[in-house]
Design a protein that fits this description.
4 helices, 5 strands, globular
C-alpha cells in the first residue's frame, strides 16, 4: 500500500499544484475554494487549521474549474513535520474526517505527505 500511496503523491506533484493558502487568496472575487465549500473564507479556515496543527506546507492539488469560472481544489497534500506530536495531531485530524465519511484512516508510516480528500471536509 505504501508504494501505491507514494505513486499517487508523485502523480499529484507532477501535475498542477500550488501552496493552498496562496492559491486560495490569489483568486479574484471569492472564485477559488475547496470543493463543496461555499467560499474562499471557509476554505482558508480548513487550510489554516492544518497549519495550526503543525503542517509544514499545505498544497492544493486536483485543481479544476467550473463553467462559471470558479476554480476549485479536490485534494490537499499536507507536508508532514518530523516532530511526533505535530504529526499525530495531523493524523488525528485525517482520522476523524476519514471515519466520519466511512473510510479507513491513513496510518503514519513515516511518509512525507498526508493526502486529504476535501470532499466533506469541514
Amino acid at each position: 500500500m505504501f508504494e501505491d500511496y507514494t505513486s499517487t503523491i508523485r502523480e499529484f506533484l507532477s501535475g498542477p499544484h500550488a501552496e493552498a493558502r496562496e492559491w486560495l487568496q490569489s483568486g479574484e472575487g471569492n472564485k477559488r475554494r475547496l470543493i463543496e465549500h461555499r467560499s474562499t473564507a471557509q476554505s482558508l479556515e480548513v487550510v489554516e487549521r492544518l497549519y495550526s496543527l503543525g503542517a509544514e506546507r499545505v498544497l492544493a492539488v486536483g485543481l479544476g474549474e467550473d463553467s462559471l469560472g470558479q476554480s476549485w481544489c479536490r485534494y490537499l497534500l499536507v507536508e508532514l513535520p518530523d516532530e511526533p506530536r505535530r504529526r499525530e495531531a495531523l493524523f488525528a485530524f485525517e482520522r476523524e474526517h476519514a471515519e466520519a465519511t466511512g473510510f479507513d484512516a491513513t496510518p503514519d508510516e513515516g511518509q512525507l505527505y498526508l493526502f486529504l480528500d476535501v470532499k466533506g471536509l469541514g
